[in-house]
Amino acid sequence: MPLVTTGELVTRAAADRSAVAAFNVITLEHVEAVVAGAESAGSPVVLQVSENAVKFRYGRLLPLARAAVAAAERAAVPVALHLDHVQSDDLLRQAPAAGFSSVMYDAARLPYLDNLAATKAAADWAHAQGLWIEAELGRVGGKNGQPPLDAHAPGARTDPAEASAFVADSGVDALAVAIGSSHAMTTRTATLDHALLKRLSAALDVPLVLHGSSGVPDGELTEAVVGGIAKVNVGTALNIAMTTAIRDFLAAHPDAVDSRTYLSVGREAMVRTVADIITVLRRTG
After folding, report:
1. What residues form DSSP beta bridges with 21?
2. Strands 45-50 and 20-24
3. Cα 231 to Cα 170: distance, rounded to the nearest angstrom
4. Among candidates 82, 47, 34, 76, which has minimal Cα distance to 276?
5. Structure confidence at residue 75 as a pLDDT band (50, 70, 90)
6. In angstroms, what CA-CA distances link 57 with 48, 54, 170?
7. Distance set, CA 159 to CA 128, 193, 277 (Å)
8. Interacting residues of 225 by C-beta distance below 8 A, sequence separation 6+
9. Is it the case that residue 8 has pLDDT exceeding 90?
10. Mind listing the pLDDT tens digit for each residue in 85-110?
11. 3-state class of 50 per DSSP?
12. CB 68 within 8 A of CB 99
């Protein structure tokens, strides 16, 4: 079916007090697995390509983006494309022509005023191109001599009053909030601050996004959706599933050399992970 927009999926989820799953993809096998997993679960999904993934692909956005567009257009469920954690303005400006309907612009490493200025400029440009834009805010840095704290560093938390001002002044369409998850977690041990999430949900009139969701247990995820999270980002969980399956296959078949034999095993492991996570999120919807 035709591509849908990320904004459409997330806005609908926020209105329904549900959440859409957004999976970061690196290889064609990731793309195929996310689409197949979403089809298995019968749910819409967001395919995300991060700036780091683009760097891995020799700095070229189009090869993976065109594969994602082709897979999305042949999917039996609605699929949107999202460009994730963009710090490069050059990459930002490639998004519309590459088929992306949304961008997460990441200036959270900067002191608050610099983050705000950079994000507002990105949002103004993105909106002029018809793009939906997400940003991120952790603890405000640069106050009382404190350096900026990455929004998903351990201990980072988003202040509701600062978040409200940031959204109003930057004009972003969604905000990723720091409530206890961390990027690249390989164990599902994160404990979320649900009281803070409740305050953030009350203070903000844009959809809230949870990054670092691979490290969040099922119960915490469902409670987060109930608390107002409308987009759940997952990346590392797919890599764990793929790598574990391939490692086990090669251990059992040490003479294997045809990459299709082990890549197919890794892809199917990711399909199951995608379907399982979507099922967890739907328990609240």
Report:
1. 232
2. parallel
3. 20
4. 34
5. very high
6. 14, 5, 31
7. 29, 12, 28
8. 17, 18, 19, 232, 281, 284, 285
9. yes
10. 999 999 999 999 999 999 999 998 88
11. strand
12. yes
- 109 - beta bridge partners? none
CA distance 175 to 169: 13
Q: Is 175 helix (H, G, I), strand (E, B) or coil?
A: strand
| pTM over 0.70, yes/no | yes
DSSP string for 95-123: TGGGT-SEEEE--TTS-HHHHHHHHHHHH
Question: For 43-61, how does the pLDDT look when each residue is reduced to its tens digit (9 = 90+)?
Answer: 999 999 999 999 999 999 9
Q: What long-range pairs does 86-95 form, CB within 8 A, spacing at least 24?
A: 86/51, 87/51, 88/51, 89/122, 91/51, 91/54, 91/61, 92/122, 92/125, 92/126, 93/125, 94/61, 95/126, 95/129, 95/131
Of 145, 225, 243, which Cα lies nearest the Cα of 179? Answer: 225
- Opening angle at CA 272, ends 270 and 275, nearest 5: 110
pLDDT computed for residue 144 by the predictor? 38
**Strand pairing category for 208-210 and 229-234:** parallel
Q: Which two tokens mark 85? A: 């954690």
Question: How many whole angstroms separate alpha carbon 104 and alpha carbon 263?
Answer: 29
Active-site residue set: 84
Task: Please tell me the distance from the alpha carbon of residue 83 to that of residue 98, in angstroms, as a whole number.
Answer: 10
Q: Helices in the chain by DSSP H: which ranges?
A: 6-15, 28-41, 51-56, 62-73, 89-92, 112-128, 160-170, 194-203, 218-227, 236-252, 259-282
Tokens of 138: 């952790």
Model confidence at 233: pLDDT above 90: yes
